[in-house]
Design brief:
With about 130 residues, the chain is α+β, with helices and mostly antiparallel strands. It has helices at about 35, 40-50, 70-90, 95-100; strands at about 5-10, 15-20, 25-30, 30, 60-65. Strands 1-2-5-3-4 form a 5-stranded mixed β-sheet. The N and C termini lie far apart (about 75 Å).
């Protein structure tokens, strides 16, 4: 198997993943998964597509993660892993789509408007 790569995005985070045959190690920015995401919930989010297909021990995954916060990065990485798994075996797409791992979450921060303190908040109205 040659190296399979895929990209996942969420909010301001971008995850580029590279799959190769291996034992199941996940390396993120030259650190292990446990070092990069110490929170077990975020580790679970990252591993969801692999656990759905029971492929957690089949591939070594190298990840380049930039931008965003840790939650956005974890969800971007989940999307990238799901896309790479579909590139490897297209029959898995329906199972991953059923779990919601193939959909890119389009929600992002709304821009701040001029003359307002925040995106939707207005300055207090004064009658006099």
């Amino acid at each position: 198997m040659e190296r399979i790569n895929a990209v996942g995005r969420r909010k301001a985070a971008i995850a580029r993943v590279y799959f190769s045959e291996g034992t199941g190690t996940i390396t993120i920015n030259k650190r292990t998964l446990d070092e990069y995401f110490p929170n077990p919930i975020l580790q679970y989010i990252v591993k969801q597509p692999l656990n759905t297909l029971e492929a957690a021990e089949k591939y070594d995954i190298t990840v380049n993660l930039i931008g965003g916060g840790y939650k956005g990065q974890a969800e971007a990485l989940r999307l990238a892993i799901a896309r790479a798994l579909v590139k490897i075996n297209p029959e898995d797409k329906s199972a991953l789509r059923r779990e919601g791992f193939m959909t890119r979450d389009p929600r992002a921060v709304e821009r701040k408007k001029p003359g307002q303190p925040k995106a939707r908040k207005r300055f207090q109205f004064s009658k006099r």
